[in-house]
Amino acid sequence: MYTGTLKSKSSGLKIVYRNTSLKCSVVRRRGADGRIPVRTLDRGASSSAAAAEPTGYPGGSYDTSLLVKYEHHVARHIWFGEERGPKKELKVAGHGLKLNSRVPLALPPQMESWVSRSGLASLQRTSLNKIDTNLVSAFVERWHLETSSFHMPFGEMSITLDDVACLLHLPIRGIFWSPQDVTEELAVELAVDYLGVSQSQAQSHVRSCRGSYYKLEWLYDIFVHHRAASSWAYATRAYLLMLVGSTIFADKTFTLVEARYLLLFRDLDGCSGYSWGAAALVTLYRYLGDASMYSCKQLGGYPTLLQCWIHEYFPTVGKRGENWNPAGNCGLPRAMRWSYRQGVLKVDDLRPILDELTPTDVIWRPCSNKSMPMWSQPCVFHIINKSTIINTCLLKLMQPLTILNLITSPDNFHP
């Protein structure tokens, strides 16, 4: 088995591997791209050892068979001093302040019934007013889309369905619906049929969006108009689409929502059967994967979910405001526990802090006071030899739309 010692971060880095079975030393130089090229070894080493020697990146994976996109990952570029741009943090929008002005204190009873039964009512009050973009960006740099997890110094961790249910009170059981892509023409038809706007108004709006989208502000105006006209079904659809477009389905434009999501609200009595929590998690996973790439500058999805997850599990990282103590919860989503506090730490300051984290810095079961079956508690991903999941109590189905977690005791966790 090979072991190595890292000597320098320069592109001409030397790595010394020692193979105890061959009784020889191997000196290798990395190329300009950071890889260890497979070349002839020094005198005395066999060709079979050359074939067995791993290739990879400094400060990253030596076995790139799993992390196949690491070449484009932001962490690889940061190692060589290449930042995303003048601003090292991502552009992130939380929509919290806008939702405070758009979500009424009370909905008309006709609408309240549909909204409550939809399973989305909690999203009206869970968004942070602002997002700590430096804190979120520092964690995104540790996300890998191939494993759907944050690579921490002691192993891997991920946001789970249980976390979504705990933080947002969204249903995690039910129908998982994959929305089909829609054309601009279909986006116009959907707006006419389910939002109650005219053909000309819908055509003009979709054309201004330059794609199959609706503007969040436009949906709010439709909601206000139909509420005043007592057109409850149209008003409820516009309201719910604006709500999910500002939270769990937020995209990187920060002003638009994809028209295909309107299909979820065709039947207002049936939309309660969807697994909204799974949809929220898959959407966030997808945007985290995008944002972990060096070329990406924005983060979509629901950043409140990510930041509140960080606050729950990493109490010593970042700055957080607490609205109430969990002991006096009264059944509220735990995301409402936290409020925005402007942090003083930048991405550069947070990177070494994350590098030094140990398992004792993590609250492994923040939701343990809930009455729930033990198997659905949050779990730890413990990775050995870069890609092998070692945990007899953990099963993770590594598919983009399905996550199953079994419990592991933090008392039995050894990094």
Salient structural properties:
13 helices; three-stranded antiparallel beta sheet; AminoTfrase-like_pln_mobile; 11% strand; 415 residues; Aminotransferase-like plant mobile domain-containing protein; MAIN-like; 32% helix; alpha+beta
Structure description:
Helix content is 32%, strand content 11%. It is an alpha+beta fold and 415 residues long. It folds into two domains: 78 residues, no CATH class; 273 residues, no CATH class. The protein has a three-stranded antiparallel β-sheet, with no helix packed on it. Helix 4 packs across helix 10 and helix 6 crosses helix 11. The N terminus and C terminus are likely disordered.
Task: Produce a short descriptive summary.
InterPro entries: AminoTfrase-like_pln_mobile, MAIN-like. The protein is an alpha+beta fold. The chain has helices at residues 47-52, 74-79, 96-102, 109-118, 133-140, 161-168, 184-195, 199-209, 216-228, 232-245, 276-291, 303-313, 347-355, and strands spanning 2-6, 14-19, 24-29, 91-92, 143-144, 149-152, 155-157, 213-215, 256-258, 298-299, 321-322, 338-339, 383-384, 388-389.
Order of helices and strands: EEEHHEHHHEEEHHHEHHEHEHEEHEE
Mean pLDDT: 79
Count of domain modules: 2
Q: Helical region count?
A: 13
Distance between the termini: 20 Å
Largest sheet: 3 strands, antiparallel
**Percent range for β-strand residues:** 5-15%
* Structural class assignment: alpha+beta
Low-confidence spans = 1-30, 34-47, 49-53, 370-415
**What is the strand tally?**
14
